[in-house]
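Morning, I've got a small favour to ask if you have a moment. The fold is given in discrete form, as structure tokens running alongside the sequence. I'd be grateful if you could look everything over and explain what you see. No rush at all, and the record is pasted right below.
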Amino acid sequence: MKAGFALRSSVFHPSLIVKIAPLLERAKVDSIWFPDAGMSFDALDLCAVALGSSRSVRVGTGVIRAGEQDPRRLSTRVLTMSEASEGRFILGLGAGQARGPAAIEEVVALAEKLRAGYRGEHKPPIFFAALRGGMLRAALSSADGAILNFCPPSHVERILPKSGVRKGFALACYIKLFFAKSDAAARKMLVQEITNYNNYPSYHKMFEVAGVADSIAGLRRDSRKIPDELLEISLPNPTKQEVVRFLRRFARAGVNLPIIYPYVSGDEDYQLDVVKTLASVAAAVAE
């Protein structure tokens, strides 16, 4: 089992990418992903920095919102990164906060337009962000992979078709882990993030489907105890062994590309130490 790695720009400053990307590449990480975190840093530009700082690892947007893109401009940028990296770029697309069949159709239409107009030799794989079954079904028919996010393994099993996924399809899942120099701070980070996500209607609906919405609603930001069902989604200050077991639980549920997604509170040296530890986990599960 190979693992990916997500670098959120609100956690890791872009100046760290040139240090982290080669480190992850040496650890045989499958791919590096840049979520669009709503900051001033552009996910596509961050991909370009990582591609320029590495030689073999794949790099993708994870994800950019289809409705905010100029298709002509996006196609040019995708072409540039795919050809310059000789096929290492992955395009991750999502619907953002748009919901319903029209939102899914918009993502599918953009993907099809980009494929049809591609002029180079290295047409990039396209992944769709999939919180629930509708977008996952669209990905299975119109994309090369899907990215789940902030969900328990039981939710993966629930939305997967009984026949599983087709050969070659990448079912990825962002697995968020929270690190701080104190356990209390790490727990607080987890609580803050999951309650923030619960405020988005699309995530709240997913949490309802996953059966954890009530547990999230009962959390306080200073909660000292995180309910067990939420520890099936994310972990605060996990050990290396706990991360390995966590990744394998998702793999048993059907995820064939778990993506380690760390939030780290601390200075640059501490951040790099956490990344190095998690890179060793990725190397261990790939053996």
Summary: The chain has one domain: 4-286.
